[in-house]
Write the structure tokens for this entry.
Amino acid sequence: MPRRIGEYLVEGRRCRLEEVEQALAEQSVRMRLNDYKPLGEILIERGQLNEYDLKRALEKQRLEVLATVSVFRNLPLQSLRQISELAEQESHPEKTLLIRQGEAGDSFCVVISGRVRVFRTSEAGQEMTLTTLGPGEGFGEMALLAGEARSASVETIEPSSLLFLPRESFFALCKTNADLSLAFVKVLCDRLAQGNVRLELLSEEELAVRNLFGKYITPEIRDEILSGRVPLDGEFKEVTVLFADLRGFYALAEATPPKEIVRLLNGYFTEMASALRQHKGLVLQYIGDEIEAVFGAPLPLEDHPRLAVEAALEMRRRLALVNGDIQRRGRPPLTHGIGIHTGQALAANIGSPERMAYTLIGDTVNLASRLQTLSTRFGTDIIVSKTTRDRVEADLPFVQLPSTSIKGKTEEVEIFSLG
């Protein structure tokens, strides 16, 4: 858990504990008088700390927090130091507006201490809180890379310290630091489906549904959930699960500018999500460069195995279209692998009070994911379990593959490709 600056000062013997406690008491009084001042500045004013020691403590705090940020978690210490040196640290009292919806996205921000609220404002002036963020959490990736306007506002909800990495500094560092560029792309993949969404004025219930299912929910599913006919507190359902994963993508990402990667991924995900929706599938999540989708939840579908298989064939067709555009720009084509399995799964709204998501859990999900990983081994792009194939009545070009041992299964699994 990231620590506050006072703990670093005491730990490094730059201040005594009682001095920090006295300064915190003074800071509390100042806040009530609307005269907020960071703890370090108060200690310097009181003659209990010098600027050099404060700078060293702040640097240690920044490095420890940056190491917990999802974008930077696996970066070497030298890369974290470069980011820390380029970023600008600011401290603000509560209810300070840090980012305004609609303004230019010119920085990536990380919360060092305190908490902030992310919210959108409708045209009618209604504020809708999207989430709250604490130490080690960042915001502003999409606007930063896409160079477009901020899609939400951010304000502090308690005294907070934040790091701002300016756009120019970020791109300059990416050019010389492949680790940072690749790390940012990996996390960015998870966020693409949520980026740059224009949110209409919604009721609290409708907004909650949007937050759970993303922007790709159909009006029919939304209406069923809002009517109360679809339970979100947990039910076992027979579903067909589909996983799709890009092959060799990160090797391409290392040699491609970040903005072009964003455009490429947006194009791919847009086409794949459209193919899934066309066949009544629901995108549950994007995991890196992987898509997880379900057919038959939250609304039941009698022919969900067939719909999933037909969606996979449509995804194959659309990938060819995406690759046509990519190759015209001199880039190598993308390839992906798809795994499909049908069975029982626990479907529920799962997460913390601040971050809930409609999720599937169970062996059906695990097997579909593992089938997807087999596609490279068998030199095919779509692998379907026998359970799914037996439920598909349409005359489709299934080709039986050798039965395969899969982790977690005592018996070999019969699998098929699609010609």
Remarks:
- Confidence is low (pLDDT under 50) at residues 190-205.
- The longest strand covers residues 335-351.
- Residues 366 and 408 are 9 Å apart (CA to CA).
- The radius of gyration is 25 Å.
